[in-house]
Amino acid sequence: MSLSAVFILDMKGKVLISRNYRGDVDMSVIDKFMPILMDMEEEGQVSPIVVHGETTFMFIQYNNLYLVSTTRKNANVCMVFTILHKLVEVFLEYFKELEEESIRDNFVLIYELLDELIDFGYPQTTDSKILQEYITQEGQRLEIAPRPPMAVTNAVSWRSEGIKYRKNEVFLDVVESVNLLVSANGNVLRSEIVGAVKMRVFLSGMPELRLGLNDKILFENTGRTKSKSVELEDVKFHQCVRLSRFENDRTISFIPPDGEFELMSYRLNTHVKPLIWIESVIERHSHSRVEYMIKAKSQFKRRSTANNVEIIIPVPSDADSPKFKTTIGSCKYIPEMSAVLWNVKSFPGGKEYLMRAHFSLPSVEAEKKEGTPPIQCRFEIPYFTTSGIQVRYLKIIEKSGYQALPWVRYITQNGDYQIRTH
């Protein structure tokens, strides 16, 4: 079911702008929203869904604003929250920042966008690239094209017709983030890979693209069980991908949006060998000093190199007089983080490096805090994927038959990558 109205409020609950879509909810009911929310906060029962009589409020907070929708029906909650987040996304595309001032400065434009994004409470055109083709802002003057672009009225709502490029190119990035949690005794407690296929498309006309991956299910269906393949989980696609085609024969077939977008995301709940292994020995000398010995080892092939490696080592909040000794890179103490940052610009595979740090402590021992925060690691490894996913082909078919260059790049980076210490 649909939403009835949308309101944008300031932090005090004052309505900055509102749009009534269905006329089935009294617009003055919004006056009840803030008092109910404050009562709930006092009782420690904050919820993004607030009920008052027959009206349900669903809201999100962004900066100093509340975006609130009202409904009297049994609404699809996921759809309503998706619309509210989409409003924020589109407003940011237009205004670059979303706060009380940008709302006040752009009333006319916001009303136009609210009318195009939602019709009678249902989502309509939500792609900001398409909206910007016919709702444009020149200074303070709003210009509306005499008729909407074809994308709004045809089946391919994410791409306009008549796009032309002198040089036709496609850039495809496979970006994998490694989430890892290692216990103090060296056991891997949690590991997963979260991947995304990101594209930048500069192609003329209405091209049809087909992407081939070393997908395990596809390889099993076609009898290529000996070839190296990857079992993808939790696959999510951009709206341009033909889902029925993928479900039938695992073909990723689509007419892409113009410019930059995320084609798909996936997850692999697999045992990941830590790419950068970190060991720490911490010696605490009561009332006087603390010494750290940190060993970092790259556990990937020698032909790969991790760039901009940052190892963040927590230290006591009352530590001072830092001294460092390292075989590579640079170290600095960051007091506001109570941490040492060990930075290694280039960390080739199969290497091991050492860092020693020495801190003085005040003579009066500070209260020992519960537990020590884990060591964190950040890195980026180009031309490499942990999962072994490969782009086997990217075919570009367009009726004019032009030649296009596809460029493919692989990057592995840290996600939530933590190593606990004693």
Automatic annotation (TrEMBL):
Q: Where is the signal peptide?
A: none
Which keywords label this protein?
Answer: Membrane, Protein transport, Transport
Where in the numbering of this chain does the MHD domain appear?
A: 167-420
Residue ranges annotated as coiled coil are none
Enumerate the subcellular locations listed in this protein's record, separating them with semicolons.
Endomembrane system
Principal localization reads: membrane
Give the SUPFAM superfamilies listed for this entry.
Second domain of Mu2 adaptin subunit (ap50) of ap2 adaptor, SNARE-like
The family classification in the record reads: Belongs to the adaptor complexes medium subunit family.
Listed name of the protein: AP-1 complex subunit mu-1
Q: Which organism is it from?
A: Saccoglossus kowalevskii (Acorn worm)
- Per UniProt, what is the name of the gene that codes for the protein in this document? AP1M1
